[in-house]
Specification:
The strands form five sheets. A four-stranded parallel sheet has the order 4-3-9-10, covered by helices on one side. The protein contains 15 helices and 15 strands. Helix 2 crosses helix 3 and helix 8 packs across helix 9. With 487 residues, it is an alpha/beta fold. A hairpin with a 2-residue loop joins strand 14 and strand 15.
């Protein structure tokens, strides 16, 4: 099965055919850097990290561009509010975003252009649009003439007669058409500005991405990504600009990730119901945020609730508990030169490889990948290798599992943590959430162990019941009692 991508432009899945065999040009709209990003903003970064990694695993050489919008009304407003220059705000929040990005362990992009680094290219782009009769200037302001671009609306499927003049479109009597949008605007006093043929000013929002794409990737790209809120007007206007300037197709495949709801409400700063990626990672763990995003298909709208978060934590725990078992086997069992991977388990791995390939080649269906990973974990745990120390195949089979889970984990930016430390951090999360006392838990565990050693079964049962009452699960293992907080 060849890779198929749901293309927003055609509203259908299409077989992926790159412009140049073996190479992919991928652009994802990055953040406007005036504040910390909320968890919904990170859905694109996490999703397209996987998209890029799968393309590379499939043999493609990927050039991945993720931009920073570092000149914008929101940046200027925040700078004015704080009494600093706009560049202070933009540089601060680029650095803050990169801290969060690095915590997530995502692979670095090929390019992270800033708008302010491409002013010459932006101005040249606007000049070409004017030359091609796709734009016009009035009083130092340049507008795109949508009446001169016949395909306007082909991405969003909006009809000009049905357009609402709201979304970032200023109604201006000077415009030839009310829906013409700004390419260049005169700067106001105190705003950052650049010299142009139309006077001192700065670019409109939409022109930035088109100019950076052309400068870095060329006139046509393979894949353009972003959230569904960018379909109109931003990406619609990008297409008009790109094809109006270059007289060729702008992008072959448009991918858009859906919104995330927080407790049944659309998450947005205007509603005041956002949680930043940093706050979420501080409260839980970067693994939880990534697994949360990848447990659903990128085109599905899903609801972030306490129950959903707990399901994700429970799933991560299952994988990491298995990885901890594997590490015990690899550290304490003897590696045999004659050892082979358990035949039935090898069959499971092989069939799972095929399932994962099929899932990801079908528009990056990560939810199915997660289900397949759980199948492999369940099959491995069913082998009970901890009880088969003398089996020459145990060490080799455990190593095969670890290599398999880490290969797909690297692709998803998951399962790379040290298992015992991660499991301990998960217990810390749940202890804090349930307002438990770790010292009290350890005291009860020790009390039960000593009672069992002394054959004081009543006291052992008392400790057991006390642990269960506060939500602690435990099991007796050759290495001692292992306990965790019920999710």
């Amino acid at each position: 099965m060849s890779l198929k991508i749901y293309n927003t432009l055609s509203r259908s899945k299409e077989e992926f055919k790159p412009l140049v065999e073996g190479k992919v040009k991928l652009y994802l709209c990055g953040p406007t850097v005036y504040d910390l990003l909320h968890i919904g903003n990170f859905r694109g970064a996490i999703t397209f990290n996987l998209v890029r990694n799968w393309l590379e695993l499939s043999g493609y050489d990927v050039t991945f561009v993720y931009n920073y919008t570092d000149v914008d009304d929101k940046i200027i407003k925040r700078a004015n509010d704080e009494g600093v220059e706009p560049i202070v705000i933009s540089e601060k929040y680029i650095a803050e975003f990169e801290k969060d990005f690095n915590r997530l362990g995502l692979k670095k992009h090929t390019h992270n252009p800033k708008v302010t680094e491409f002013m010459d290219e932006i101005i040249s782009y606007v000049e070409t649009l004017i030359k091609n009769d796709k734009a016009y200037e009035i009083d130092g302001e340049v507008f795109y003439a949508i009446d001169n671009y016949a395909d306007y609306g082909k991405l969003s499927k909006k009809n000009l007669d049905e357009l609402n003049a709201g979304q970032r479109v200023e109604v201006d009597s000077r415009k030839r058409n009310p829906y013409d949008f700004v390419l260049w605007k005169p700067s106001k006093e105190g705003e950052p500005h650049w010299t142009s043929p139309w006077g001192e000013g700065r670019p409109g929002w939409h022109i930035e991405c088109s100019a950076m794409i052309k400068a870095i990737l060329g006139e046509t790209i393979d894949i353009h990504g972003g959230g569904i809120d960018l379909i109109f007007p931003h990406h619609e206007n990008e297409i008009a600009q790109g094809e109006g300037c270059n007289c060729t197709k702008y992008c072959n495949y448009w991918m858009h990730n859906e919104f995330i709801n927080l407790k049944d409400e659309k998450m947005s700063k205007s509603l005041g119901n956002v949680i930043t990626g940093r706050a979420f990672m501080d409260q839980y763990h970067p693994e939880v945020l990534k697994f949360l995003m990848l447990s659903a298909h990128y085109r599905s709208n899903f609801n972030v609730t306490d129950e959903k978060i707990h399901q994700v934590i429970s799933g991560l725990r299952r994988v990491y508990e298995t990885l901890a078992t594997v590490d015990t086997i690899l550290d304490t069992f003897e590696k045999s030169e004659s050892g082979k991977v358990n035949k039935n388990f090898q069959t499971t791995l092989t069939s799972s490889d095929a399932k994962i390939k099929k899932s990801l080649d079908d528009d990056f269906s990560t939810a199915e990948v997660v289900a397949t990973i759980f199948e492999v974990v369940r099959t491995f745990n069913g082998l009970n290798l901890l009880k088969k120390k003398k089996d020459v195949n145990s060490w080799t089979t455990a190593k095969a599992f670890k290599d398999w889970i880490q290969r797909y984990g690297q692709m998803m930016a998951l399962f790379q943590e040290e298992p015992v430390q991660f499991l301990s951090s998960i217990d810390d999360i749940m202890i804090k959430e349930k307002n438990l006392d770790r010292e009290k838990i350890l005291e009860l565990v020790k009390m039960r162990e000593e009672a069992r050693e002394n054959k004081d079964w009543d006291k052992a049962d008392e400790a057991r019941d006390a642990l269960h009452a506060i939500g602690i699960d435990f099991s007796d293992t050759p290495e001692g009692v292992k306990w965790n907080v019920k999710v």
